[in-house]
């Protein structure tokens, strides 16, 4: 994206009025350009503060660079949970041609919660988290097809680059998580926690007061979903994921979150078609889950996210059990 | 004695190599910004080669100037201000300081460090294999700059 276009986009995304109460308008009003917390920043030129097309998941396409190339100084103790629907993707491998809904979750989020609430640039940093994932074949081409949480995945690919929770990068070579979770506005079909804007207005709250309530309810997103259709071919797939639990710090400038004190998670594993995973001499399925980064522990848990996935998911202990 | 005859050096500083400033700005600086300027890499004061880039390592005074020069709208949107001329000059001096007079160009650290070890480069960091081969377009741009090419590199 060239500079004028980028500027227009930023202006459009940050300058909209908070007086628009629609959910989408709320999302668009949130200050946008903070480090790489916006997916588009991965593709923006480095001369404009972006990643220049690098995804930082540690793959050869980013010549091994991970989130840790920027985000530093986090401490050990956090965790990251992965789950799939249908279950078993990270345990027994994939069924060629099957579409999986993959859920990524900070488990638990540890950083930046005190900075929840929508942030305007002049108010300093706010709590933002994110992830990027890639599935690559041996020749470094994308393996299978990626899609956002809400896109329609067909044989031709995903019909939209932008979902509610995730965004496609680099012509669907990678998928990235949106950094902020907007509050739900109560209405027909809205379940769970929501803000009753109509009720508040009827009770005499002013527009500004309602706006403040909406802004205060914006949080750093901690859960994301996306879709992946496994390739029809029977070869192994390199899955790589990098995630950041941001601390909302403002050490660099008052207008930008900084990259210090954030927790970083890096995960890579070779996924095999079911039944084709190599077995070592102890009878254990070989895996390449790694443990590195500024958080000494990369904890992969599978959580039964019935509410999210409406189906039981398999447990995936990358470093658990007898097989390591 | 010193007061009488003065003090002479038998190893006076070398003049800085006169490589093209314009070619650096348009052809080399974008490569350094994209490939090298991460805070854990050369976007750090701890490095011998320091690379400034928007949103990463900046000169504090220059960042303040650049931010002041931004429009209110850009500031509020968190738009990263471009490097100032002084910051580009800083990067230029950092890069040309890696040139050792008389050394074969392919042995310059700007080329052999980021070149993949498998392609004959010198290992310098995990994830440090930036250029997969000596035929990589970005490698060739830096090489051309080191060999004295000018703004024609920017095309």
What structural class results from the helix and strand content of chain A?
alpha+beta
Q: Give the count of helical stretches of chain B.
A: 7
CATH architecture of chain A: Sandwich
Mean pLDDT of chain B: 90
Count of helices of chain A?
5
Bin the strand percentage of chain A.
15-25%
Proportion of residues in β-strands of chain B: under 5%
Q: CATH H level of chain A: which superfamily?
A: Reeler domain
What overall geometry of chain B do the principal axes of the alpha carbons give? globular
Task: Give the low-pLDDT segments of chain A.
Answer: 1-34, 287-324
Average the pLDDT over all residues of chain A and give the rounded result: 76
- Name of the CATH first level of chain A: Mainly Beta
Distance between the termini of chain A: 44 Å
Can you offer a commentary on this structure?
- The complex is a heterodimer of chains A (324) and B (155).
- With 324 residues, chain A is an alpha+beta fold.
- Chain A has one domain: Immunoglobulin-like, CATH 2.60.40.
- Chain A is 12% helix and 23% strand.
- In chain A, strands 1-14-13-4-9-8 form a six-stranded mixed β-sheet, with no helix packed on it. In chain A, strands 5-12-3-2-15 form a five-stranded mixed β-sheet, with no helix packed on it.
- The N and C termini of chain A lie far apart (44 Å).
- Chain B is globular, with a radius of gyration of 18 Å.
- The model of chain B has no long low-confidence stretch (mean pLDDT 90).
- In chain B, helix 2 (21-36) packs across helix 5 (85-96) and helix 2 packs antiparallel against helix 7.
- The N and C termini of chain B lie far apart (58 Å).
- Chain B has one domain (19-154).
- The A-B interface holds A 6-7, 10-11, 13-15, 31-35, 45-54, 58, 62-66, 68-70, 72, 120-122, 253, 255-256, 259 and B 29-30, 33-35, 37-41, 53-56, 63, 67, 73-80, 82-83, 126-130.
